[in-house]
Amino acid sequence: MGKANSSGPLLFQSKLLCFSLLYLFSTLFLALYSSLSSTTKCLFRSSPFEPIHVPLFSYPPSYGEHKYAIPTLRSSCSSPVFFSDYWMVLKEIDGFCRNSSALGSRHLRYMKGRAESFGGNFSTQKRFSYFDYSDVGVEVPCGFFKEFPISSFDKIAMEKCDGVVVVSAIFNDHDKIRQPKGLGSKTLDHVCFFIFVDKVTIKGLNYHNLISRKSKELKTGVWRIVEVSSDKLYENAAMNGVIPKHLVHRLFPNSLYSIWIDAKLQLVVDPLLLIHSLLVKEKADMAISRHPYYVHTMEEAMATARWKKWRDVDLLKKQMETYCEHGLEPWTPDKLPYPSDVPDSALILRKHSAASNHFSCLLFNELDAFNPRDQLGFAYVRDHMKPKLKMNMFDVEVFEQVAVEYRHNLKPGGGGGGSISSAAGSKTKRASSGLFANGSCSSCDKYLLTMWGESHD
Q1: What is the end-to-end Cα distance of the chain in Å, rounded?
Q2: Starting at the edge strand that comes first in sequence, how are the strands of the sheet with 164-170 ordered?
Q3: Is the distance from CB of 379 to CB of 341 less than 8 angstroms?
């Protein structure tokens, strides 16, 4: 008998089968690689993070919290966001909150006193004098020159929130309360959710039987509702909403991180993952989306006048001329790493550092002086404050995948109740012409020429 030929396993003796398996595995690998590297994906998770699968709260059909969603049209992403493992993120942020010194200095002294307005009504020169905070002994004006009218019961609860807080506001029943999605199984043990409302909004919630007055603590799903006696603050509903939006570090003095989310948005990614990816990993004081269309502050100002987002165009023009006189410049590559001068401020993530708190105070002072359009003073404050804060201005495509945007409540007679334009209303004096119309001479001529690429300097 001849010696038997030695050979490999029978599986590898078929060339056709080997080529088929090789083709199959290559195809699967390429498909996986393509799905991970595709420019249509902005968010990547390294592992499942055990989301809460059960609904957080069931609304009556009449409330219609998911009506009128605004579709997203962008399908590209130049800088995808990678989320770390949920449990690792939870442990790391919890460690920061237990050891607040790990976040660095949060020291900032606030001016105290009483005034007729909540913001203090400071002059231009006085406001700008606080942009340089090299002397930590100086007290910075930061609102609260009138009492913020909430119950002591709510105030105590806000002071107890000593880690991460998610904040929103609805004034004049302008939006719906929308429950977040995609929360990790332990997130509610580490994150507070507070939403500020006025009596008009409370009336609407009562109409739909969403709250009960049997308890001092009003809640709807994850959101703790704080009623604000807004008639004791600003006449304009939008300005009342600016207080929790930009002075969150003062309302929640013991919180180390915060997320502001406009009530028109529904958060669909766990807030801990967002803070870790957009703030912690980027070593940033603040994270905010760039505007989907505008890059220059003046573009936003012109759109504000054109679309009647603020009706007092004379005051709007005065605001822009004030900034131009004191050094406002259009965006250029020299301003990098800031990719834009105009944010989409519907979603703001903050580390409550001294730099972030300083920026929030300075911007609020500008809103108090002019109007609640926070995109107009944004770049001026950012570029002129000292010391600088590190800001992560992420892509619009990321914003569109971490939150779903809805239209404001539709009111009889057209328009949403409580909008800036309706709140400004007929009581404000409208300019007879548009912003910088007919090439009128102004302090912003140089700005406009540079923005349009016609400067000959």
Answers
A1: 98
A2: 218-220, 223-227, 191-197, 164-170, 257-261, 343-351, 286-290, 391-394
A3: yes
Look at residue 359 in the predicted model and tell me its pLDDT: 98
Look at residue 429 in the predicted model and tell me its pLDDT.
43
Look at residue 69 and give its three-state secondary structure. Answer: strand
Could you report the per-residue pLDDT of 249-288, keeping only the tens digit for each? 999 999 999 999 999 999 999 999 999 999 999 999 999 9
Q: In 119-186, where do the E strands start and end?
A: 139-140, 164-170
Q: Residue 139 forms beta bridges with which residues? A: 109
Please give the backbone phi and psi of residue 265, each rounded to the nearest 5 degrees, phi first. Answer: -105, 150
- Write down the domain spans for the chain: 47-295+331-425
* Run of H or E including 220: strand 218-220
Q: Tens digit of pLDDT for each residue in 30-77?
A: 444 444 444 346 887 766 567 787 778 888 888 887 778 888 777 677
Angle at 455 between CA 454 and CA 457, to 5 degrees: 155
- DSSP conformation letters of 333-399: GGGTT---S-EEEEEEEEE--HHHHHHHHHHHHHHHHS-S-HHHHHHHHHHH-BS---EEEE-HHHH
Q: What is the pLDDT of residues 93-151, one digit of tens each?
A: 999 888 766 555 567 899 999 998 999 999 999 999 999 998 878 899 999 999 999 99
- Here the tokens at position 102 are 């790990």
The Cβ of residue 112 has, within 10 Å, a number of other Cβ atoms equal to 10
Tokens 């800088």 correspond to what residue?
A: 79
Q: Is the pLDDT of residue 173 over 80?
A: yes
User: Is 287:349 a contact under the CB 8 Å cutoff?
Assistant: yes
